[in-house]
Design brief:
By secondary structure, the chain is mainly β. It has no helices and 32 strands. A hairpin with an 8-residue loop joins strand 27 (370-372) and strand 28.
Length: 435
């Protein structure tokens, strides 16, 4: 049974009604059951795209390699009991049903790997969505790793075409990827980021790849972003004309496309060294998207790439991730903020194997996630969520096909284990209480 919270009153979801009611100033949050998404996971990345062409939002879920999923690891500190882990093929596509739920699909089987994230685009312009996933380099030790370019077939399955498309970059310690049509020829290109150093001294750096009319990728170093390194930062967002990237060479910067080259635009000095994640959305309704930069305890920076202006919001949480979408259906972009919490850093205590002796919690204490509604973002409202695990990532998606965005949240940050779950937003008043 799905239970909602309308104006703070617990009710059946079907009992929420907006008929004849005054809409509240801020919609109330409904925590929904997981509905087909992994219940227990060390989460890493989610990619939102319509992977089967039915017009509904789907997910590609990619988990970072961890010792609990590696049978060769002699010591499995902090791992769940045997049998509690999802199967290895839980990485892959989760198809949206349009009813607020997802169904795992075996159309794309992602084998166990040091996978850092995927992007989706129709790389060969055949009307079917393809996917590219970057693979890490085992801290610079691996010399035979291969990234993954999955091209969709007419029967709905996917075939790895990495080598024949020229994307094999075995020395790159993959971090994040961005797909966009940088040269405006109708074919999506790729920007792949990397982290140094490698233990063998081999170069590991970012590259911009131009799509050669849907048949192969060609490096394009003349665009000016090759060779940049992330130092492990996970901040990348943008489109074909402007990207934002936190590099060791230029710091946290936006890069504006001028002709066939990207020129850096530095972001404020006070933001440097703080970025956790970057979202790209038009939060001021001027038609030009801004960069929303998660700055940890320093807040959320809003950077306007055209003017170079900036604003700082203070949600009073340790910002881990930001999801942007129209949650309340008023035509304005809203923000959902995932917060980290105590014992939620990578390598800290708070493993699955037992409660933290100081806090009594399993896997750390998750931060208090918050939501703020545009266009003024005047108040950050706490969001109910499961206590298990630590807040990691969020994406905005229309999971119930009603025209408004919901948020899919993962709670498996660092060494924590937690669920994926969906948060819905309503503007209705309660007409009946739970029986």
């Amino acid at each position: 049974m799905r239970v909602a919270i309308c104006l703070g009153v617990p009710v059946l979801l079907s009992a929420c009604s907006s008929e004849g009611a005054n809409e509240p100033r801020n919609p109330t949050v409904i925590p929904l059951e997981t509905d087909g998404l992994p219940d227990l996971s060390r989460s890493y990345r989610m990619t939102l795209a319509d992977m089967n062409g039915d017009g509904l939002d789907d997910l590609i879920i990619a988990h970072h390699e961890n010792p609990c999923r590696n049978p060769q690891t002699p010591e499995k500190k902090g791992c769940p009991p045997d049998g509690a882990l999802p199967p290895f093929d839980s990485d892959g596509i989760y198809l949206g049903t349009g009813r607020g739920s997802f169904e795992y699909s075996d159309r794309l089987l992602l084998q166990k790997a040091d996978r850092h994230g995927c992007v989706a685009a129709d790389f060969n312009a055949d009307g079917r969505m393809d996917a590219f996933c970057g693979i890490g380099g085992d801290r610079g030790l691996a010399t035979d790793k291969t990234d993954e370019l999955f091209i969709a077939e007419p029967d709905g399955t996917f075939v790895d075409r990495t080598d024949e498309w020229g994307l094999n970059d075995p020395a790159r310690r993959s971090r994040l990827e961005l797909a966009a049509d940088f040269n405006s020829d109708g074919f999506p290109d790729l920007f792949t980021t990397a982290a140094p150093p490698r233990t063998d001294g081999t170069e590991s750096h970012s590259r911009l790849w131009l799509n050669d009319r849907g048949s192969r990728f060609v490096p394009a170093p003349s665009w000016g972003v090759d060779g940049l390194t992330t130092w492990g930062k996970l901040s990348l967002a943008g489109n074909a004309s402007v990207i934002a990237f936190d590099s060791a060479e230029n710091g946290l910067s936006a890069y504006q496309a001028i002709g066939q080259r990207f020129e850096p635009i530095p972001m404020p000095a006070a933001w440097q060294g703080r970025s956790r994640q970057i979202e790209f959305a038009d939060v001021d309704d001027d038609g030009d998207p801004e960069f929303l930069v998660g700055l940890g305890e320093a807040g959320i920076g809003i950077f306007h790439p055209k003017s170079g202006g900036s604003t700082l919001l203070a949600p009073d949480v340790d910002v881990r991730d930001i999801a942007a979408g129209d949650f309340d259906g008023d035509g304005h972009i809203d923000m959902f903020v995932v917060a980290t919490g105590t014992d939620c850093k990578i390598g800290d205590v708070g493993d699955y194997g037992g409660p933290n002796p100081q806090t009594g919690q399993t896997g750390g204490i998750s931060g208090r996630h918050v939501v703020a509604f545009g266009p003024d973002f005047s108040e950050f409202i706490p969001v109910p969520h499961p206590m298990q695990g630590c807040g990691d990532r969020a994406v905005a998606a229309d999971t119930d096909n009603d025209g408004d965005a919901e948020v899919i949240v993962s709670q498996g940050f660092g060494r924590s284990w937690g669920p994926y779950y969906i948060v819905d937003f309503v503007t209705a008043t309660a007409t009946a209480s739970m029986p």
